[in-house]
Amino acid sequence: MPVPQNLTGTGNVLRLSRRTLQSADDVATYLGAPLGQLLWTLYRAPDDVRYRHFEIPKRSGGMRPIHAPIGLLRELQDRLHVDFKQLYRAHPNAHGFIDSRSIASNAADHAGKRWVLNVDLEDFFPTINFGRIRGLLLRPPFELGLAAAAVCAQIVTHRNGLPQGAPTSPVLSNFIAATLDRRLLRLAREHKLTYSRYADDITFSTDLAQFPASIAVHEQIESGGFKVAAGEVLEQTIRACGFSINAKKVRIQGRGVHQSVTGLCVNKRVNIERQRIRRIRAMLHAWEKFGLAKAAGEHMERYRSPGRRPRHDDNGRAFRNIVYGNLSFVKMVRGPADPVYLKLCSKVLDLDPNPSKFIRQMVFGADNYDIFISHASEDRAAVAKPIFVACESLGLKAFLDEEHIAWGEAFTKKINVALGAARTVLAIISSTSVTKDWPLTEVNTALALEIAGEKTVVPLIVGRPDMSKLPLIRGKDYLEWSGDPVQVVRRLREVMAGHGGDVKRPPTRPGPTSGSVPTVSGATTGQTSPQRERSWLQRVFRKPD
User: Strand order of the sheet with strand 194-198?
Assistant: First the structure.
């Protein structure tokens, strides 16, 4: 496929040589697609060539139809999506599908209010039809010609509406709803209300003694009870913007009951519902008591319909991802320093034998280190600290315990996370370190992980240590400490660059003396593979045999 002609910068978005797109040929050239193939895909191709159709369950019950574009149509929508996002200027009260905004930011302005009114728009995406999109593309900031606007509208619509599942639908819905946002914000200010919108969820809140009748009213129903309905002024305003209210999803919540905005509790502050926290704790308890496989199987059987369950051998991975997704949600709402969140993450670190970069970053903000410096405390000042400083000066990200572990932090957990994050372990082996349990278990575990293909270990020999307690190191290439930390770090950087982090032999450039550790008489290499069913904490800090 030819290279698209779109350039960076909003001045060139949907432009060819600084002029607006006018024809179908212009659109094809801009998107880098042959004109004939583009037109066949849009107007003649069978539906199953353009979209994949499936359903997902709604939170409120029932199924939501999804129409996900495939093939060339997906490529075209992906390219237009980038351009549309560059041109969109978010309304301050819109929060859905906007970078740096979320359901939490949408709920924040309504926290602690006396009254909260929730209104849902009916058939939000399908209501935005081909004609509305074409009209949008004819106006600034797009200003396409009639033919170009029609072709682009055909690319992003399906069955005369925005398809749920298309990458372009969210941002286009925000473009179309911009008028709605302006009018509802004006209406809210006139009635001393706070307004926000997240996709099709509209929320008003106030501290007034009564909610304005033009916005919401209580209607008596045949059974003698009452229901909440949208006020006449609100309904007219929404209808004038081309949308309609889902009468079944209008609800008003006073301060004395549970107040919810986009699924979050807002009675006092934005918070997660207790039921979600209890569910996460229950999942972790099952993982701890029964193991990952059994906990995952039970969860899928209880909460997933047969058609939505993963393959049996993927249950564990899917369950783990569900746990991590829930933790990420808790972090988004409650913040990274929240004690409940940190306690849940700490539990996951104990349970997961191979915590991913995702969970490490969530708990400690730890990115992948280039070098983990393993050492005895007696070697820190003379050897480890100078090497750490040299790593910083030469652009390598190194982990040294005293530099990265603050007072009061869980020492073993921090070491555990850093060792898991590092690609290469520099093992400082001295006459002192071979007599200490902590450095020995650390180095032996790193060596076992190297055998399993998870780490690269580079020994740095200081003096003439007794190697009998490190049987896995015999025959390995090593560096000798000459007192020059810069030479050590340069050697590490060279071998990492030359071997992609899988160090087998040190390079032959001048530097610290290199060689092979002599074989230790009578030593054995039993138990060379790490036990994956143990947690990292157990593997790293188990007592030596």
Answer: 194-198, 201-206, 115-121, 245-254
Write the single-letter amino acid at 366. Answer: A
User: Which has the closest alpha carbon to 409: 517, 337, 352, 502?
Assistant: 337
- Residue 217, token pair as written in the block: 């009213």
Question: Quick one: tokens of 68?
Answer: 């996900």
DSSP annotation of 515: E
- Encoding tokens for residue 298? 């039970």
Residue 438 in 3-state DSSP?
helix
183: its two tokens: 């009018």
What are residue 203's DSSP bridge partners?
118, 196
Dihedral over alpha carbons 67, 68, 74, 80 (to 10 degrees): 70
The residues, any chain, with a CB within 8 Å of residue 278's CB and separated by 6 or more, are: none
- How many Cα atoms are found within 13 Å in the side-chain-facing hemisphere of 327? 27
**137 CB contacts (<8 Å, ≥6 apart)?**
144, 148, 149, 152, 153
Alpha-carbon 294 to chain mean position? 26
Q: What average pLDDT score do residues 287-291 get?
A: 94
Q: Tell me if 428 sits within 8 A of 382, measured CB to CB.
A: no
Q: Which of 89-103, 443-457, 502-516 has the lowest mean pLDDT?
A: 502-516
3-state helix, strand and coil shares in percent for the chain, rounded to the nearest 5: 45, 15, 35
Confidence of residue 313 (pLDDT cuts 50, 70, 90): low
Q: CA 293, 312, 279: angle at the middle one, nearest 5?
A: 50
Q: What is the pLDDT of residue 280?
A: 95
Q: Give the percent of the chain with pLDDT over 90.
A: 56
Q: What is the DSSP string of 16-80?
A: ETTEE--SHHHHHHHHT--HHHHHHHHHTS-HHHHEEEEEEE-TTSSEEEEEEE-HHHHHHHHHH
User: Could you read off the pLDDT of 373-420 as tens digits, one per residue?
Assistant: 988 889 999 999 999 999 988 888 888 876 544 433 444 555 656 666
SS3 for 378-398 is HHHHHHHHHHHHHHHHCCCCE
Residue 490 has pLDDT above 60, yes or no: yes
Residue 230 burial by Cβ neighbours in a 10 Å radius (0-12, 13-18, 19+): buried
| Cβ atoms of residues 340 and 334 within 8 Å | yes
Written as six digits, the tokens of 517 are 């550790």
Instruction: Give the contacts of 246 (CB within 8 A, at least 6 positions apart).
Output: 120, 121, 122
In three-state form (DSSP H/G/I as H, E/B as E, the rest C), the secondary structure along 252-279 is EEECCCCCEECCEECCCCCECCHHHHHH
- 227-266: per-residue pLDDT in tens? 899 999 999 999 999 999 999 999 999 999 999 999 999 9
Average pLDDT over residues 79-83: 96
What is d(CA 260, CA 268) in angstroms, rounded to the nearest whole number? Answer: 11
Claim: this prediction has a pTM higher than 0.85? no
